[in-house]
Amino acid sequence: MILVTGATGNVGREVVNLLVDDGQEVVALTRNPAAAELPGGAHVVGGDPSRPQTLISALSGVEAVLISPRALGDATAGAATAKLLALAAEQGAERVVALSAVTVQYAAGYRRFADTFKAVEDAVKASGLRWTFLRSADYAANALAWAPQIRSVSVVRGAYGDAATSTIHERDVAAVAAKALVNPKHAGHAYVLTGPHSLTQREKVRLIGEAIGKELSFEELPPERLRQAMLAQGLPEDVPDRLLGSLADYARQPGPSSNTMEQVLNRPALTFAEWAAEHAAAFRN
Ligand SMILES: NC(=O)c1ccc[n+]([C@@H]2O[C@H](COP(=O)([O-])OP(=O)(O)OC[C@H]3O[C@@H](n4cnc5c(N)ncnc54)[C@H](OP(=O)(O)O)[C@@H]3O)[C@@H](O)[C@H]2O)c1
Does ligand 1 have an atom closer than 6 angstroms to the CB of 142? Predict the structure, then answer.
């Protein structure tokens, strides 16, 4: 049995789908089972993984655990991961796969965000379970934040339009996670997961435009103005910090690219254009 934290998230939902399709028994954790809309083949369990002591009954018979740091409380995810894995190990768990980020290995953005992932990785290593880390580039799903502007004015107003990253399709992260949760041969690997091409923000906006058959543009704003606009929308302070800190660095030097998908999945990584075509409805009026 495999326990998936963050099961309703961008990656977790795809992991649950893949594992169920593969015939695996899955315990899918969510704080709100009524709204989860997870596949019928999964055991959907209500619980908060940032409070691991409440999850003991869900851990019975679990062989492998997927750690999604957001679901374990981000800033406090290291400590929650340590507790959850200690309980899982007591129940006989053997493997753990942690969703992490390239910034752990290729510094970019504010150090405190990398430290969150590092704390999770450290807790995972200390657990004694066989571990796999998935150090991903930025997820394509982050581009959904542009959808309201694209739908209303066909313009993305942002900072650092030339910042370039090899954005990854979240289904690719999930595909590697599903393999590592099931197959012990991935133990001991810290995989750097990226998309196939380094793309600037402007290029990503153009590719979304191609997917919806509309000319879109990127309008450069001073970073501080964007930050103030995000705070005025009521976003928590760490959202602009997380975004602008890393974009500033990726404007100076593009984020990393890897060929891990070919190695692990025997196929190329999915492209941003493919992601945009799949998600075109979100960007159309
Ligand atoms: N976005 C990126 O570019 C990127 C890159 C590298 C790594 N990552 C990391 O990869 C992990 C998975 O990303 P994802 O996009 O799949 O995650 P997500 O969709 O943002 O969140 C996963 C789940 O966590 C729970 N959750 C969300 N916000 C929460 C909060 N404030 N407190 C407690 N629980 C919360 C929700 O589950 P329920 O409501 O069902 O409980 C949600 O479905 C995250 O830890 C993320 O930091 C992201």
Answer: yes
Type of residue numbered 140: A
What residues contact residue 64 under an 8 Å CB cut-off, 6+ apart? 2, 3, 93, 94, 95, 96, 97, 181, 182
The answer for residues whose C-beta is within 8 angstroms of residue 113's C-beta and 6 or more apart is 101, 103, 238, 241, 242, 245, 246
State the pLDDT at residue 147.
Answer: 97
Any atom of ligand 1 within 6 Å of the Cβ of 91: no
The domain ranges of the chain are 2-137+168-194+256-269
pLDDT in tens, 28-72: 999 999 999 999 999 999 999 999 999 999 999 999 999 999 999
φ, ψ of residue 46 to 5 degrees: the values are -80, 130
CATH superfamily of 2-137+168-194+256-269: NAD(P)-binding Rossmann-like Domain (3.40.50.720)
The predicted pLDDT at position 285 comes to 86
Q: In the chain, which stretches have pLDDT less than 70?
A: none
CA of 54 to the centre of ligand 1 (A): 20
* Residue 165 CB–ligand 1 contact under 6 Å: no
Q: Look at ligand 1, atom 43, and give the residue with the nearest C-alpha.
A: 9
